[in-house]
Predict the structure.
Amino acid sequence: MTTEFQDGWELVVGLEVHVELTTRTKMWCGCATTFGDEPNTNVCEVCTGQPGALPVVNERAIHDATLLGLALNGSVAATCWFHRKNYFYPDLAKNYQISQYDVPLIADGYLDVEVPGPDGDVETRRIRIERLHMEEDTGKSLHVGDTGRLHGADRSLIDYNRCGIPLLEIVSRPDIHDPETAQAYLRELQAIVRTVGVSDARMEEGSIRCDANVSVRRPGEELGTRTEIKNLNSVRSLGRAVRYEAKRQIAVLEDGGEIVMQTRHWDESKGVTETLRVKESVTDYRYFPDPDLVAVVSPADKVEAIRSELPELPAATRARLAEAGVAAEQASTIVASELGCWFDDAVAAGADPGAVANWLTGDIAGQLSAAGRSMHDSGLTGAHVAELIGLIEDGTLSTNLAKQVVEGMIEERGAKGPAQIAEERGLQQVSDEGELRAIVEQVVADNAGTVEDIRGGNQKAIGALVGQVMKATKGQADPRKTNELLREAIGT
Amino acid sequence: MSLSADEVRHVARLARLALSDDEVTDLAPQLSGILGYAEQVGEVAAEDVTPTVHPFAPQDVTRPDDPRPSLPREDILASAPEVEQDRFAVPRIVAEEG
Amino acid sequence: MVPEGVSLTGLSAAQLAAKLAAEEVSSREAVDAHLDRIAATDGGTPDGDVWAAPPADELGPDHVHAFLRVTAQAARDHADDIDRRRVAGEELGPLAGVPLALKDVLTMRGAPTTCGSKMLDGWIPPYDATVTELLREADIVVLGKTNMDEFAMGSSTENSAFGDTRNPWDLDRVPGGSSGGSAAAVAALQAPLSIGTDTGGSIRQPAALTGLVGAKPTYGTVSRRGLVAFASSLDQAGPFARTVEDAARLQTVIQRHDPRDSTSVTDRPPDLLEHLHDGVDGLRIGVVRELQGEGYEPGVEQTFQVALERFAALGAEIVEVSLPHAPYGLPAYYLIAPSECSSNLARFDGVRYGNRVDAPTAEEMNAATRAAGFGPEVKRRIMIGTHALSSGYYDAYYLQASKVRTLIAQDFRAAFETADVLVSPTSPSVAFGLATKTADPIAMYLNDVATVPASLAGIPALSLPAGLAEAPDAPGSALPVGLQVMAPLLRDDLMYRAAWAFEQDLDFAPLPTGPRAVGGAA
């Protein structure tokens, strides 16, 4: 595998991903974690850092973090601690963040991601994960002033609703050498986080956030000086930003310049990274064990009990689908869009896996998307999908009619099944031979010129007559039957 | 251990304390004296000793993930030096976070 | 012992509780008598329903200044409510209706908590400390909040932003610290009970200097929730009283497992009162070799030796034990406690509560607020702790001190194999003059030399009066000397049992005497 990025330069990327766990309460106190509530309504003495307040660990957060760590093939520390990371910032109520330092909850995991190889096939790349550690989120600052951004604001207003929400930091090793792999890693991580159900992993709401450490070097040389890119709000931004930053660094180096260790901000509209601040020296966070908290202990039996809760992970689902005859790309889509249970239900109801995948990722997905909805709030079930496919196979519905039935099911929000909708809306194919034959004969009589053409050997022209029949039946004619009757009438 | 005035200023920055020049002048010898005294701990051979964080503490203390009522917002904001739009107001922030 | 007295303020808590239970006096009468005593001796001025302490420069020479704030009306209302419920036949706790003074480092809804600092100006805590909740549940009446060294850092109560507290035995001397206000209040008969907090000796040393019983319970047995943290791994609230039994009763009220404090232990010591009177016959009392001798005043040494003879006469077996690492306790303490404090006190930044000094940027506002709000000793400790945790120094300072801590705990475990309890002088000196040690931080820190080892190990320790001794700077003076009793983890009962036997034998009168003692003793 070549890791060259451009002109003999190798790109080296490590990702730090923060996942907000969807526990009901915060990490250290019983305040709710609801997103978007009125400012400073989900707060108490603990999460606003009132003097004398003490933290107590949320049991669920440790459980969920462990579950995700196991899904990422990590090992769970038998005993670990919380440390204080000391720095001043107004959105950090205690002016220290409770985090983990020398012993994280989870260490040494990995994630296998699939990326398109040079020959168009799919390559699997293993990205090692150094650690997953528990920490707490900060509050949110609203910058008030001319620009609405931090720079140029004349004051900031702090809301501590988010302060103390459990956060899991997932640090990869610098095993990523191209933007596509970075994107695939983030996408796969999102899929796993959702599958194990520990977070909704919505980048737009900030419930999953990604920073990228980027450097370039000549292959075989020591790691180059890295920059850290922040404000990556989508998988797309990640890819663009990494590509931009790599090219920027290569240009600087080829120009005889040096890379300065710094934090850079990705500007999505300009498509560039910009200096946020230069790290003069490593920030001195003065980590030390938090004396308000005690050791978290994970004995082997507890870890195994949590492991037994692991659902089928995306990679396994994709493999299973592929084995059942689903095309690789469709399998990926089914997993990424979390359509696995509809697929399984439809197949269990007797439908052909390939057909199910086609409909789920094709027309159903398209129509739902156009209607601004998702499968999850559509009311459609796997049984509906199986029934639909059955109606096509027994000739009751043509593909076109089936699409109209889907439209009807979406309108009815799944309250009525495909057969009922086809019935009520008169969408069954006209396969009654007498009725169809009359229409065919009329079409043949009305299109003498075309009929002559066909008889003269232009077999393709029959398509025009099929179209006429379809028009006359409002699309409800069985195409195969129509073809058959036309040939009979024309006599070819 | 003797702390110079510059080292005192560096520590004060970390501790976010705006010390006057007089305070720096006074603190340098005081802190040096205290650290000199405290450095006696280095006389103890303790390479293989496990450090103690808690003198006597239980392990694995957690609470169930059950919501409890938050405090009324007015109670939390009552003691704030400056409030705007139901938020804690501070002058413009210069540094970036963590 | 407290004589059966003419005045309610001279009674022990147990004596007062008995009179309350017998309905010979009402809680309201008891509260009013103590409020009168505060008014007469403390220098407070009525201000609506509270008595606020006067500005530091207006303190009279005869004022004790134990209280920062007396919540008089709230106390009267609470007492009236208890009296009503008693008359109605409701079952009340053993100390119901007894007044108490609360150190101003524990939160209590509806009243400011200042921690002796300007930093918290205007902060009304939105919640009660667990200790405060338990006191209320026991129907103990809180009279008000007492003075202290700023954020509990100090050994003389001279580091309060609101003026010194004076020793009721000699108003020109310090009461010790940091819980000097809580000690002085009980010694001056302003309350029969008070709550202090002890991080490196902040209950035991003032108890010693004011002739009281003061106990630091086993770490983790009293909830720290609502105790504004100085050094989380060391802080522990505990009782002050004029008798051992009163202290044991008050400790019994406040020691309870608290699921809201992660370091709260689920175990309790055996009942503190059940075997209180069992005596010391056959008990092995260990004398700690390293906690005596050089640095201890002759009067203190001599009183301590007499105390050992008394124990022996009571049938105890006196054994010598060694805590080889104890001499490193104080240096370790003065790295660990400041390290924790540098982080614990970071939250005082002018954003969410308390004082703010305006400045153009948030960073400057934080730094200016902290510079103006903290006093010199707090700044020193924040600086020491910040340095001790910083890159390049952590291993030699914080980490090495934490290892020494392990060794000291091991030393105690070994010593408790040959002795049931350990004893030492509580403080190397009797009460010293105001402003005599403030210029030399290390001289002040040496006050804690005998109390810090037990703090580092988390074991229970108390101080009780061992007698009176002459201060080196005042020939002919007679000031209290404290005897420290230390016991294994969760054996607070043994510590109280040894102390009670000694107290009965000594028959010390905890009533301040002397030419500069607080006036009008009950």
Remarks:
- The CA atoms of residues 113 and 456 of chain A lie 57 Å apart.
- The mean pLDDT of chain A is 89.
- The radius of gyration of chain A is 29 Å.
